[in-house]
């Protein structure tokens, strides 16, 4: 029996459940541990308005990425959309920003999780790097077996995370006092603006799904469903946490580094430290697991397009495991981790590299979406709104865009190098043709 057309095209194996878990983990990240307290400190009870505003702002961004991923399932993700709409150099920039820029956040996540675990378990801070390495190993191991295995691992991690969050909120809810919501605007609307800027980073992560879009069995169905569920779940989690944080902790909400610990202690002094330790570990593992799948698929896609050495291209096709690109990701993470150790675990420079690269990716991705999607459709209008929002984010992040600019220069350098090689090859071919013509003219009668 001859194979059908469908049989010759590799299909992904992710379903709605695993995909949704990966989406939730990429968005409901380490911000869960610190942002409710920081936002309450900046805006007081009005921080609740900030959460609602950012949920609204997330809709066009997440919706645009969902439309693009469903229509163009490709491991290159945003880089592939940039290639289609803006050309090879823009695609290379976007790919480098994600693989070599956003990747700086991986050791940050591991160290953050390790700091919380060490604090809760009363482990000497000198052991934080060891705990961080222990957090890094399981996601790499899971992704060695492919996105499907990583997806089921993520489903378990996400379920545990949501269960612990529900538990902490349930314990603290009886301590909510109506008087803690007054005055509602203690720092004016400027404080709300500050809280919004904080929560923008909490709701980043929607681009991760674009890199694993080809791993879905039915991307046109699963990706929109997964995105919608993740929007609702992450939005509800942050909103409920913010309401309980403000209502239960009042003016002291921003005093501690880990407001979840204080919330848990309100209901159970013994459960509190254990809960925060579990949350920190689950968040770090979950975020790493989701992002590593995206990094590996992108690396293999960049190699397949000639933007990285071809050796890393193995595993770019749907359903395959990009182990070589995963090894490259591990090497990049190891470099950043070593630099972080050398800097005395100072996370700020690495967070700036991560965030500046994310802003640049979003801006290019939305411009590409405006050009790719059919004008006048819901997807196109969401892309237009998201592009305007991303322009505002670029202005806010202007002071930290140097790392992204350097990676862009590297991408342009590759383009120039290629053009020089092409011109040189053409000149050599022309010289050989002329020499052959001259030789033929001499020997002809």
Number of domains as seen in the coordinates: 1
Ends apart, CA distance between termini: 60 Å
Instruction: Output the CATH class name.
Output: Mainly Alpha
Question: Per DSSP, what share of the residues sits in E-state strands of 2 or more residues?
Answer: under 5%
The string of secondary-structure elements, in order, is HHHHHHHHHHHHHHHHH
Q: Give the class from helix and strand content and strand pairing.
A: mainly alpha
The CATH topology corresponds to Amino acid/polyamine transporter I
| Low-confidence runs of at least 5 consecutive residues | 1-10
Main sheet makeup: none
Provide mean pLDDT, rounded: 77
Q: What is the helix fraction of residues, given as a range?
A: over 70%
Beta strands, count: 0
CATH architecture level-2 label: Up-down Bundle
Description of the structure:
It is a single chain. This protein has 17 helices and no strands. The protein has 445 residues and is mainly α. The chain has a single domain, classed as Amino acid/polyamine transporter I (Up-down Bundle). The chain is globular, with a radius of gyration of 24 Å. It starts with 15 loop residues before the first helix and ends with a helix. One of its GO terms (cellular component) is plasma membrane.
Chain-wise SSE layout:
Blueprint: H1 16-27, H2 31-43, H3 47-71, H4 78-86, H5 88-101, H6 105-120, H7 128-143, H8 147-172, H9 188-202, H10 208-211, H11 219-249, H12 259-267, H13 271-304, H14 323-342, H15 348-372, H16 378-396, H17 402-443
Helix pairs in contact: 1-8, 1-11, 1-13, 2-9, 2-11, 3-9, 3-11, 3-15, 3-16, 4-5, 4-15, 5-13, 5-15, 5-17, 6-7, 6-13, 7-13, 8-11, 8-12, 8-13, 11-12, 12-13, 13-14, 15-16
């Amino acid at each position: 029996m001859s194979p059908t057309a469908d049989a010759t095209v590799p299909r992904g194996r992710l379903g709605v459940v695993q995909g949704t878990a990966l989406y939730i983990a990429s968005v409901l990240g380490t911000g869960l541990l610190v942002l409710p307290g920081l936002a309450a400190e900046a805006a007081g009870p009005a921080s609740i308005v900030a959460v609602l505003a950012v949920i609204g702002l997330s809709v066009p961004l997440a919706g645009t990425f969902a439309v693009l991923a469903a229509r163009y399932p490709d491991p290159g993700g945003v880089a592939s959309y940039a290639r289609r709409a803006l050309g090879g150099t823009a695609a290379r920039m976007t790919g480098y920003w994600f693989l070599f820029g956003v990747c700086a956040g991986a050791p940050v996540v591991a160290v953050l999780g390790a700091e919380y675990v060490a604090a809760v378990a009363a482990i000497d801070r000198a052991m934080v790097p060891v705990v961080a390495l222990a957090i890094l190993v399981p996601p790499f191991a899971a992704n060695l077996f492919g996105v499907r295995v990583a997806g089921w691992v993520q489903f378990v991690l996400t379920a545990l995370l949501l269960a612990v969050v529900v538990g902490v909120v349930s314990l603290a809810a009886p301590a909510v006092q109506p008087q803690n919501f007054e005055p509602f605007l203690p720092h004016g609307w400027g404080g709300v603006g500050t809280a919004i800027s904080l929560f923008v980073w909490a709701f980043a992560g929607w681009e991760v799904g674009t890199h694993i879009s080809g791993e879905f069995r039915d991307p046109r169905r699963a990706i929109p469903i997964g995105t919608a569920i993740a929007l609702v779940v992450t939005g509800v989690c942050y909103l409920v946490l913010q309401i309980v944080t403000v209502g239960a902790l009042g003016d002291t909400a921003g005093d501690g580094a880990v407001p979840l610990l204080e919330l848990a202690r309100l209901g159970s002094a013994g459960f509190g430290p254990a809960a925060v330790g579990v949350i920190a570990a689950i968040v770090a593992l979950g975020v790493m697991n989701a992002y590593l799948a995206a990094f590996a698929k992108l690396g293999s896609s960049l190699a397949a397009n000639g933007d990285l050495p071809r050796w890393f291209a193995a595993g770019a096709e749907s359903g395959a495991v990009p182990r070589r690109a995963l090894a490259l990701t591990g090497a990049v993470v190891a470099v950043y981790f070593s630099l972080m150790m050398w800097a005395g675990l100072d996370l700020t420079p690495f967070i700036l590299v991560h965030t500046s690269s994310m802003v640049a990716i979003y801006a290019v991705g939305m411009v590409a979406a405006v050009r790719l999607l059919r004008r006048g459709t819901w997807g196109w209008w969401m892309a237009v709104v998201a592009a305007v929002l991303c322009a505002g984010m670029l202005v806010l992040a202007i002071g930290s865009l140097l790392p992204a600019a350097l990676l862009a220069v590297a991408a342009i350098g590759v383009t120039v190098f290629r053009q020089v090689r092409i011109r040189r090859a053409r000149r050599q071919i022309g010289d050989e043709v002329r020499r052959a013509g001259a030789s033929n003219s001499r020997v002809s009668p």
